[in-house]
Amino acid sequence: MKVLVIGGSGLVAGLILPYLKEKYDLRVFDMKPPADLSLEYISGNVTDLEALVQAMTGVDAFLYMAMGTLGIDFKDREVYLRALDTAFDVNVKGTYFASRAAHEAGRAGHREHGLVHRSTIWSRCTIALRGA
Predict the structure, then answer these.
(1) What is the pTM of this model?
(2) CATH number of the domain that residue 24 is part of
(3) Structural domain tally of the chain?
(4) β-strand 2-6 against 61-64: which pairing, if any?
(5) SS3 string of 76-122?
(6) Which of 117, 128, 47 is nearest to 88 (CA)?
(7) Which of 10, 27, 55, 110 could serve as 40's disulfide partner, Cβ 3.0–4.6 Å?
(8) Which residues partner with 64 through β-bridges?
(9) How many CA atoms, within 13 angstroms, populate the side-chain half-sphere of residue 88?
(10) Which domain holds residue 75?
């Protein structure tokens, strides 16, 4: 089974890729290469629908592991607002585009796709609202 791991070069994905690699043929879609250079890698941004459609071609399922920026400085308003924009783009727009790309790749005659989504967006919002 061919699995696309969107955000596959990130911290959380890096923890599970070795286990997934034992059972699945993996393709990583991320802005930076994965630590395991033996994996198929496609460079791209989750807000680029066309790149996601191309990455979805020929896969059976995908994992959405993209999460955006770590280490937000909540005391610097400008940095904080940019980080919120990034978090929205990655967690909301990216998830939407990935789902849409799977649908479009499926309509183009490719196999049906599955979706696994994990998100930290609500924990980030909770921290921000508490003023941390």
Answers:
(1) 0.79
(2) 3.40.50.720
(3) 1
(4) parallel
(5) CHHHHHHHHHHHHHHHHHHHHHHHHHHHHHHHCCCCCCCEEECCCHH
(6) 47
(7) 27
(8) 6, 117
(9) 6
(10) 2-129
Burial of 33 (0-12, 13-18, 19+ CB in 10 A): middle
For residue 74, give every residue at least 6 positions away whose Cβ sits within 8 Å of its Cβ, in sequence order, or none.
80, 127, 128, 131, 132
Long-range pairs of 98-101 with CB within 8 A, sequence gap ≥ 24: 98/6, 98/46, 98/52, 98/62, 98/64, 100/49, 100/52, 101/49, 101/52, 101/53, 101/55, 101/56
Q: Where are the alpha helices (DSSP H) in 6-93?
A: 11-23, 49-56, 77-88
pLDDT tens-place string over residues 64-117: 888 876 666 667 888 877 877 888 888 889 989 998 998 888 755 555 545 555
